[in-house]
Design goal:
alpha/beta, Barwin-like endoglucanases, 2 domains, six-stranded mixed barrel, 5 helices, RlpA-like_sf, Resuscitation_pf_RpfB, 3D_YorM, signal
Length: 396
């Protein structure tokens, strides 16, 4: 009988420990899943933000492409204008060369006339011009010959005059052609300056276009790489979530199996109690008292909740006084929790699974909704507590 009692006690202890182990494992796995889901949501927001930035870059690239098209048109116009100026320069150079050739020809004609005129002048110097004319007319043999000689003299005199007129006209033309060459050379200098300016502007436009394209390409590539990295993180997180979900399913299946075993053990326990009651003498039977029953001593009455519980200490706070004025530095071992007053009234007594009965005496910026922060003596104990999902009962 004593061995039977020992076996029943061992089963009871195991049955009591199993639910707590299951709850702790399930809470830890669910916390991990929740953390992964939050990380996935943040990652998704990052991807959406990067996609918006990428779309903005698309729009900016589109605008730059429109500006580049305008720039290309300007470049094309500059190139056409450049070609026109170069054509004008060629024309001017041809005019200059032509004028130079004409001047050479005129100079040759003038040079030839100068020889003829020099000989005529020498002849005139040796005999008086008027005497030659009179002598020519007087020596005529007949009246007809006289008129012939008059015509010949007139022809000679007109020829001399024509030579002089042509010489004067050619010299004048030479001077005008030289002036025209000077004017065309000045125009040529002006056109060359204009073409240099157009070339400089063309190079500047090319540089602006290339710089804009390189900047946009770099920016677009950077955002595309960031999106790729975010997508990789997303895939990793999704894979992690699937792994956690599979683990939860396994734990739930194991919990169901343990529940079946628990039911069988409970049934065996009840059967053992029946056997014990039947076999035990009436004088040895004892009525269980409230003080000897662990279940009775830990029973609580009040509103039950499940909350996410973290921990803190006076070493982690800027002020040693809680919201209700408790000095947690002077009383580091007191049982106190920080709560959301909308969920748990301040000043109320609360039983916390794994912690005990505590006073709701503090609040916190991160304590919102079904969350609590339990007070620990120091930071090390707070870190040891970690994050748990626990059952609480609001006692008053």
């Amino acid at each position: 009988m004593r061995a039977l009692k020992r076996t029943i006690a061992t089963l009871c202890i195991l049955l009591l420990l199993l639910p707590f182990t299951n709850v702790a494992n399930a809470a830890s796995t669910k916390d991990t899943l929740h953390s992964a889901e939050e990380q996935l949501e943040q990652n998704q927001q990052t991807i959406l933000q990067k996609e918006k930035e990428q779309q903005a870059v698309h729009e900016e690239v589109k605008s730059i492409q429109e500006n580049l098209q305008i720039l290309e048109n300007d470049i094309s116009q500059n190139q056409q204008s450049l070609a026109q100026v170069e054509g004008k320069i060629d024309e001017i150079q041809q005019i200059i060369e032509q004028k130079k050739e004409e001047i050479v020809l005129l100079q040759d004609k003038v040079y030839a006339r100068e020889d003829i005129m020099q000989k005529r002048l020498v002849a005139l110097q040796h005999s008086d011009h008027t005497s030659i004319v009179i002598e020519t007319l007087v020596n005529s043999e007949s009246l007809g010959n006289f008129f012939e000689r008059v015509g010949a003299v007139a022809t000679l005199l007109n020829a001399d005059q024509n030579i002089l007129d042509e010489q004067e006209a050619d010299l004048k033309q030479i001077e005008e052609d030289k002036k025209e060459i000077d004017r065309q050379e000045q125009l040529l200098i002006s056109q060359q300056a204009e073409i240099e300016e157009k070339k400089a502007k063309l190079e500047e436009n090319f540089s602006k276009r290339n710089a804009a394209l390189v900047a946009m390409q770099d920016k677009y590539t950077k955002i595309a790489n960031e999106i790729d990295l975010a997508e990789q993180d997303k895939n990793n997180i999704q894979s992690q979530i699937k792994t956690i979900q599979t683990q939860i399913q396994k734990e739930e299946a194991a919990a169901k199996a343990r529940a079946v075993e628990l039911a069988k053990a409970k049934k065996a326990k009840e059967q053992a109690k029946v056997v014990q009651t039947v076999s035990a003498p009436p004088s040895t039977a004892k009525k269980p008292s409230a003080s000897s029953s662990g279940q009775a001593s830990t029973s609580k009455s009040g509103k039950e909740l499940y909350v996410a519980a973290t921990a803190y200490s006076h070493e982690d706070t800027q002020s040693d006084l809680t919201y209700l004025g408790y000095n947690i530095k002077k009383n580091p071992n007191m049982k106190l929790i920080a709560v959301d007053p909308g969920v748990i009234p301040l000043g109320s007594k609360v039983w916390v699974e794994g912690y005990g009965v505590a006073i709701a005496g503090d609040t916190g910026g991160a304590i919102i909704g079904h969350k609590i922060d339990v007070l620990m003596p120091n930071s090390a104990k707070a870190r040891q507590w970690g994050r748990k999902t626990v059952k609480i009962i609001i006692l008053d």
